[in-house]
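## retry 2 of 3
previous attempt timed out at serialization; input unchanged, resubmitting
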Amino acid sequence: MHALCFYESPVGGRYDQVEFHIDGDIKDYDRNYLNDIKDTVAKMLECQANEIFINGVKAGNSFYLCIAIKKKYTNKILSLDPINISSLRTLQIDFFKIGDQKISTGALLINSITISGAEQILHISFKTQDELFVSDKENICLVDSAGKILNSGFESAYYPSGSHTVTDDLDFLFVDTNGVHKLSPDGVIATPFYSPAPYCIHSSHINGDMLVGSFGKVTRYDRNGRKLNVINYPHVRYFHPIYITENKNGDIWTSDLWLTAVTVVDRSGGHRFDYTGPYSHFRPRALCADVLGHVLVCDCHNDSVYLLDQDGNFLYLLLTQEIHEIYHPTALCVDDQHNLYIGQEYSNTICVYKYLQNTDVKHSTDQKHYSKNTEIRAPKRLGKKRSNKVGDPYYAT
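## retry succeeded, writing output
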């Protein structure tokens, strides 16, 4: 491998300079890799080889590849559809710049929902395209797609926590110090069963079971409230589980406030692994699984959302403060159209992103990933090193 060095050549009057930000360390790449990027861009723009050339490598938080492109193609690259742009993500390009314009190759913001009167967004439960259940530090409310509050008669039990969930039958379940409560679609509240001092709850989309996290344990109940099993020490170590979800393979993922880790067990409660994050400081909050069996995790300390495979291997940073301007992400969920909803601790606005390029499950094994808990290269303020492996071609749009 021939080492790359930083340089920049002038751009002629018939060309514009486009700077592609490579999320990696320059010493891990060679000229062939840069040529792959140039060829990919040329193919996207449908231009000839003599209409595009590499004219520099610039230092950045990671580094920039400068490509001179004939001016007649500048507007075309700005108007490319998200699927085309996402092909750059597989080359570890997380954004590119033309002048003062910055275009992300990752998750695409498609909507925002502001909820008047809310102090923050700590948990989101998707009901339908027209309705969401949302909680802040004190209250749980039902809102429509415009953020209008439809029902706000529920208290949020703990801070922070995933204190509510929606069943496949569209019943709303929430927990407080008195146990588990159910709000049926016709507005009737019942207490189907008592679970002592619950912190968080998740309704399984596999079999309708309910997973309830409380001090030192996770308890599985069937849809009628009958206790099926308890997962606790010595089989697995829980302290203060605050968010819980279930992956399509039956694994149970739980973020723990005191452990500052995500604990993963199989469907019977056998411990699989603990995910401790890609940085030295990790503060996990909400997590959820998607149709491909991957898990998204909020890290409110590093202002990021991570994409992991079902074995806890890091795929890549899906959202960051640097690119997406998120701060202390605490809540997330994926809807029935595979859109990602993000809530933040110091904002009353939910941001909605399109992030899945391909939801065909049969392709989901064609992935390259980082080893579990590998340290990755982050925005400059975090300063960790990332290994040189490409991300997931089925994510980002």
